[in-house]
Specification:
The complex is a heterotrimer of chains A (647), B (100) and C (530). Chain A is mainly α and 647 residues long. Chain A is 74% helix and 3% strand. In chain A, strands 1-2 form a two-stranded antiparallel sheet. In chain A, a hairpin with a 2-residue loop joins strand 1 and strand 2. The termini of chain A are far apart. In chain A, 55% of the residues are buried. Chain B is mainly alpha-helical. Chain B has three helices and no strands. Chain C is mainly α. Helix content of chain C is 73%, strand content 3%. Chain C is built from 21 helices and two strands. Chain C has helices spanning 4-21, 28-52, 82-105, 110-129, 133-142, 144-154, 159-192, 199-202, 209-226, 235-242, 245-270, 272-298, 303-322, 327-358, 369-372, 374-388, 394-409, 411-436, 453-471, 474-492, 517-529; strands at 61-69, 74-80. A two-stranded antiparallel ribbon of chain C has the order 1-2. In chain C, helix 6 runs antiparallel to helix 7 (159-192) and helix 13 (303-322) crosses helix 17. Classes of the chains: A mainly alpha (647), B mainly alpha (100), C mainly alpha (530). Chains in contact: A-B, A-C.
């Protein structure tokens, strides 16, 4: 089976080629069959590979496949090679699994769109790029996937290109991602010129010999890579593109901007955990940025009215959690949250899509309400996802979020302050999510009559993926139960061979030895659950029970509210500080430096010659006698020179 | 025997007259004659040195110059006649078509 | 037979031009057909050469060395290595595409146009195959004449200004080059007692440090103007904007490469000490060019001048790669020369296609073309992405190698130049958005026809090349590597090696290092850098 590894990314690529080259010539049924089929087959291959991998002994779980040499120059050898290890196995399952469900969902969601073929071609291309990203066995190939998903994101955000805001958002996403990619590139350069290779295996192996642990070089390299991650995974300061990315079709938001692409940064840090473990300072930066983003985005999420924007900021915030986990060296916790988040956030987006579909493409929650009875399946599944993201015990989000919070408190890289940030975020998350639920599904029906007439539950192709994801959102957490529950954390065990071990083990051992820690973990867990329940109660009180109170509260806090609703004016800030000056400077370079200084100088030189010639030409009077006179004087001068010079 | 300096002085005077004639005359014919005068001044120097140094080369060159002068006179006078026919003047200052 | 290859591929277009002289000027289809056949056969010849070329061997191949003006030591000395090989193939392929592209767009002076095209091809190929400095100079100047006419006769409204500017700039540089060339010629006589312009012989002549600086400067100026390196670039936007589409394609695709090729073929091997001495300055100018070109592109209103300024930026990458003076940089630079020829050539063709339809190139006149011309939009997108340097397109491989090399030469070169990657995305995507996305606001754009079969035929080969080089560049890199090693081994011979602040390298576990004779010289170079 191992030799079929290349099929995992290849199948979606074939799907893309078929749908892309025959665009507009295939009937919709064939397009959707090709698109879903290719990803579905890819999922089957991925599952089979997963079991192959599982059959291997724990420390030999590695399947590699080299296709051909891609770039080779002197000591640089980059192969087009794929690598399946426990980490990438999880990723391909998430990508193909969630991807497949979203493909199926899209068949229903996009059924009325004119550009059906183009949509699925892009979606397949995305799946291909994402699989290349996670299966790459070297930095450069990962970068291929990295930029590839960026491209697909650009294309899909701007899918409805006739809308100015959509194409703006696509461009913004691409450019902001490029800023991150710049960091990734520099990080790669540093690593290559020190280690002499870009293969993950070689780098992990040689890094401890080449770099001084905690040294400047490795710290800078890790920070550069992290810049890449902040771009792709929408962390401070490069998160601004993600909320705008909601211009794309909703399934795209679910797949790219929630479940898979945006988690690439987390995956990358987990993949290079050996390097990060050698750079504690860089880890600290990761943790701080992650925690800060988690809180920052959650506060913005409180005041958004667009259903997708709430989810977008929620995604940014949850990604912050994942980085927080990585930053405290709890890489497997980060990946665990990545997985559960993929389930419940994809579900939330798809549910939101179902709502939007029912609402005739309206997204403002103030115009919704009371949809519970019209959209029962959507409501139930979304509610499950909301419980999961809020961290209600038993649901998947609880386990992963709790592990992150505990690790941020207990890990040797952790700190109480980080835990506090994460803790507050958990409360805010529960609040804004239940605000969304109450505004959308409960209360009076605030939509206009025309819209109301068209409200309907979505077709089967859309609801079945919702239900499957709902199941996953519930049970997905069971693979990673905390130790204090007396269960085995299969997830951590599975990932253990690829993670730089010590901290987790140390934590585990510390846990085993000190009973005080166990009780501490219980206490923290109860604290966060209590906070979440309080937040839910508050949401219920403000948006369900006593909506007037919500209004008066909003009036009291109107200043804060405007700031939040305007997203802290970060976009305006970037516009004024970066974009405007850059354009003005460019205009200056063009109009002043290029046209006036350089070209002006050269044209000036030309006209100087012209003027000199113009002055001199008057000597050319046409009068024979004046020529003769000059001639005579010339002769006299020459003769005088020879006569006098000879003395 | 007349010293060679005498020939040279005479030639210089003739050449000077010719030069001044070319420069100040407006009449093409007069300019032409002045040029002939200059040529003959040069011839005189050649012959004087040839004689003084007893080398025949000077004579040879003088013959060459005489033929060239004859040919030049033929072509030059032809041109002047053509110009006169076209413009009805031989005032050199009128002919400044080649300016600038 | 083998030694005839290069002569044939060089002079076959000239032969074609001579044949065209005898075709009556009003028989347009005969003229076009003949040119197409000639260009196509030339391309087949170049493929044949590519096929017979030995990618492993270092040194020149298909060499011909016949005396031409024996008394002055001028030889008819031709030969190619991997670098020239790829440039020749690029030239012939672009020529064929240009002939097809010009099929309908040229309506007046058809005969003169195609004769100029073929003459130009001979001149360009000649530059790439010459191994005799005099011959090189002759071809260098020969190619000016048809280009002058292409811009000056078939160009836009300000064509005469642009053509004269182009010629004056180039002539100014090449005159200094001529002087330097003669100096080298006499210096070699003093060194070896023999008059020769043979590049391969002169390469082995040691020159004192200060003369090297001057000579390098003279050659470098000629080449830098051609590249064009900031601040000698101002002829380029004018020439591009005024030139007819085909002229722009050839200009960007091949002519600019003659400058960078000159650096590699002449400046670096002949003046190794000066190369190292000038390296930081040229790198800095290259970085300025990268950023400056990108920023100025961003605010252009004319698509064609945007592409022209983006050329300045891209050629800055090439210069930076070459003067990183390491294999990654040089290989990347050579590959990027080819890439730039393909991508920018394609961009100019695309601009030409909408210009033919709308007779305007202003960005603001367009918008929403994706709706009316979806095939066009797709091609445009692919080419745009290749120009941005997206992975798996050709631009990425070249840019990555260049940046990797530059980073080794000096960390800050690498960092600063990499920012060009961001800016490239800004200006290209912004332009693409304004031209292709959005609603069709201008009624004149409402009924534009999508690409015809002929136009697709022109673009498809380029798109194939874009992906081929992007996904499987090995055939190209393998051919470049020996030649690049050769160049660097000459630079490594520098007597006063003083690579300034090279990136400090901890003992690198070299993976699969090859044992070449150039290796020793490279090791020396690296050692000096430490």
């Amino acid at each position: 089976m191992a030799e079929y590894l290349f099929l995992v990314p290849l199948l979606p690529l074939i799907g893309f080629l078929i749908n892309g080259l025959l665009i507009g010539r295939l009937p919709r049924s064939v397009v959707s069959a090709v698109a879903c089929g290719s990803v579905g087959l890819s999922l089957i291959v991925a599952i089979m590979l997963f079991f192959d991998l599982k059959a291997l002994p724990a420390d030999a779980r590695l399947i590699e496949q080299t296709l051909f040499t891609w770039i080779s120059a002197d000591i640089l050898h980059v192969n087009l090679a794929f690598m399946l290890d426990p980490l990438s196995a999880i990723m391909i399952l998430v990508v193909t699994g969630v991807g497949f469900l979203i493909h199926v969902y899209s068949v229903g969601y996009m059924a009325h769109d004119k550009c059906f073929g183009r949509y699925f071609a892009y979606l397949n291309l995305f799946t291909f790029s994402m699989l290349v990203l996670v299966l790459a066995d070297n930095f450069l190939l990962m970068f291929v996937g990295w930029e590839g998903v960026g491209l697909c994101s650009y294309l899909l955000i701007g899918f409805w290109y006739e809308k100015q805001s959509a194409s703006d958002a696509g461009k913004k996403a691409f450019i902001v991602n490029r800023i991150g990619d710049f960091g990734f590139l520099i990080g790669m350069f540093i690593i290559f010129w020190h280690v002499g290779s870009l293969d993950f295996a070689t780098v992990s192996q040689n890094a401890p010999m080449v770099f001084a642990a905690g040294g400047t070089v490795i710290t800078v390299a890790c920070l550069c890579l992290f810049v890449g991650a902040t771009g792709k995974s929408a962390q401070i300061p490069l998160y601004v593109w993600l909320p705008d990315a909601m211009e794309g079709p909703t399934p795209v938001s679910a797949l790219i901007h929630a479940a898979t692409m945006v988690t690439a940064g987390v995956y990358m840090i987990a993949r290079t955990n050996v390097l990060y473990m050698m750079a504690p300072d860089a880890l600290m930066v990761v943790a701080i940025v992650g925690a800060a983003t988690a809180l920052f985005a959650a506060t913005i999420g409180l005041a958004q009215n667009d259903i997708k924007r709430v989810l977008a900021y929620s995604t940014v915030s949850q990604l912050g959690y994942m980085f927080l986990a990585c930053g405290v060296a709890a890489f497997s916790a980060g990946i665990f949250h990545l997985m559960t988040h993929a389930f419940f956030k994809a579900l939330l987006f798809l549910g939101a899509g179902s709502v939007i579909h029912a609402m005739s493409d309206k997204q403002d929650m103030r115009e919704m309400g009371g949809l519970k009875k019209h959209l029962p399946i959507t409501f139930m599944t979304m509610l499950i996802a909301t419980l999961a993201i809020s961290g209600i015990p038993g649901f998947s989000g609880f386990f992963s979020k709790d592990e992150i919070l505990w690790k941020s408190f207990s890990s040797s890289h952790g700190h109480v302050a980080l835990w506090v940030l994460g803790f507050i975020t958990a409360g805010l998350t529960a609040f804004y999510m239940f605000r969304l639920i109450y505004l959308t599904f409960y209360g009076e029906e605030r939509m206009d009559a025309e819209t109301k007439k068209h409200i309907h539950e979505s077709p089967r192709t859309m609801t079945v993926p919702l239900m499957i994801l709902a199941v996953l959102s519930v049970i997905g957490g069971l693979v990673g139960m905390p130790h204090i529950f007396g269960a085995t954390n299969y997830f951590e065990e599975w990932l253990h061979p690829v993670m730089a071990g010590p901290p987790q083990e140390a934590a585990t051992h510390a846990l085993a030895s000190a009973g005080a820690n166990t009780s501490m973990e219980w206490i923290l867990m109860f604290a966060s659950v209590a906070l979440v329940l309080m937040a839910i109660y508050l949401a219920w009180y403000l948006y369900r029970k006593n909506t007037a109170a919500a209004g008066s509260l909003a009036d009291k806090l109107s200043g804060a509210r405007t700031t939040l609703a305007n997203k802290y004016y970060v976009d305006e800030f970037y516009g004024a500080v970066v974009i405007r000056p850059l354009i003005v400077f460019s205009l200056f370079l063009w109009k002043i430096v290029d046209v006036i200084i350089i070209d002006g100088f050269l044209n000036g030189l030309a006209s100087l010659w012209h003027d000199i010639s113009n002055a001199l030409r008057h000597a050319q009077s046409g009068r024979v006698r004046s020529y003769a006179t000059m001639f005579v004087f010339g002769v006299i001068l020459v003769v005088a020179y020879f006569v006098l010079g000879s003395n | 025997m007349v010293p060679i300096s005498a020939y040279l002085i005479l030639a210089a005077v003739l050449f000077g007259i010719g030069t001044v004639g070319v420069l100040i005359s407006r009449n093409v014919i007069v300019m032409f004659m002045s040029i002939e005068l200059m040529l003959n001044a040069a011839n005189m120097v050649l012959i004087a040195f040839s004689r003084a140094l007893s080398i025949a080369d000077g004579h040879v060159i003088v013959f060459l110059v005489l033929t060239v002068a004859a040919a030049e006179a033929a072509v030059g006078l032809g041109l002047i006649i053509m110009i006169y026919r076209n413009r009805a003047t031989i005032n050199i200052d009128r002919f400044s078509l080649l300016k600038w | 037979m083998e030694d005839l290859f290069l002569t044939i591929v060089t002079f076959f277009p000239l032969l074609g031009a001579v044949v065209l002289l005898f075709v009556p000027a009003n028989q347009h289809s005969t003229i076009k057909g003949t040119s197409l056949i000639v260009a196509f056969v030339t391309m087949l010849f170049s493929f044949w050469i590519y096929n017979r070329f030995d990618p492993v061997a270092s040194g020149m191949q298909f060499e011909v060395n016949l005396p031409w003006v024996q008394s002055l030591g001028i030889d008819y000395h031709l030969g190619i290595d991997g670098i020239s090989l790829l440039l020749i193939v690029l030239t012939t392929v672009l020529t064929v595409l240009c002939v097809i592209a010009a099929w309908h767009s040229v309506t007046e002076g058809v005969k003169g146009f195609f004769i100029s095209m073929l003459l130009l091809t001979t001149g360009m190929i000649g530059v790439f195959v010459s191994l005799d400095l005099f011959l090189f100079y002759v071809f260098w100047e020969v190619m000016l004449v048809p280009m002058y006419f292409l811009i000056g006769v078939w160009g836009g409204p300000r064509r005469v200004y642009a053509a004269i500017k182009f010629v004056l700039f180039t002539m100014f540089g090449s005159l200094l080059m001529l002087v330097a060339l003669l100096y080298v010629y006499f210096e070699y006589q003093a060194f070896a007692g023999e008059y020769t312009f043979d590049l391969l012989k002169i390469m082995n002549m040691p020159l004192a440090y200060h003369p090297q600086l001057w000579l390098f400067g003279a050659f470098a100026l000629a080449f830098a103007i051609k590249v064009p390196l900031f601040p000698f670039h101002t002829w380029l936007p004018d020439a591009h904007v005024q030139a007819p589409t085909v002229g722009s394609v050839i200009l960007a695709g091949v002519l600019l490469k003659m400058g960078t090729y000159g650096f590699l073929r002449i400046c670096m091997p002949l003046f190794p000490d000066a190369t190292i001495a000038y390296m930081p300055y040229i790198c800095i100018l290259a970085i300025i060019a990268i950023i400056y070109g990108a920023l100025v592109s961003m605010v252009q209103r004319d698509v064609k001048s945007l592409v022209a300024f983006s050329s300045v930026s891209h050629m800055g990458f090439v210069m930076l790669g070459m003067f990183s003076l390491n294999l990654q940089g040089v290989e990347g630079a050579v590959l990027q020369m080819i890439n730039h020829g393909i991508s920018t050539g394609a961009l100019f063709l695309i601009v030409g296609m909408i210009y033919e339809r709308r007779h305007t190139r202003m960005i603001e006149d367009f918008g929403g073309l994706a709706k009316v011309m979806p095939v066009f939009a797709t091609f445009f997108m692919i080419v745009t992405l290749s120009s941005i340097g997206l992975p798996f397109t050709n631009g990425f491989v070249g840019e990555f190698l260049i940046l990797l090399g530059a980073f080794k030469a000096n960390t800050w070169y690498g960092v600063l130049a990499s920012s060009g990657v961001i800016l490239a995305a800004c200006y290209m995507l912004w332009m693409y958005q304004r031209v292709v996305y959005g609603k069709v606001t201008n009624p004149k754009n409402q009924n534009l026809k999508d690409l015809s079969a002929r136009e697709r035929l022109v673009l498809i080969p380029l798109v194939v090349l874009i992906f081929w080089i992007g996904i499987y560049p090995s055939p190209f890199l393998n051919r470049i590597e020996p030649a690049a090693k050769q160049v660097l081994s000459h630079v490594g011979k520098a007597s006063t090696v003083q690579l300034n602040e090279s990136y400090e390298i901890v003992d690198v576990p070299v993976l699969g290092a090859s044992s070449d004779d150039a290796e020793a010289a490279l090791a020396e170079l690296e050692g000096a850098g430490r």
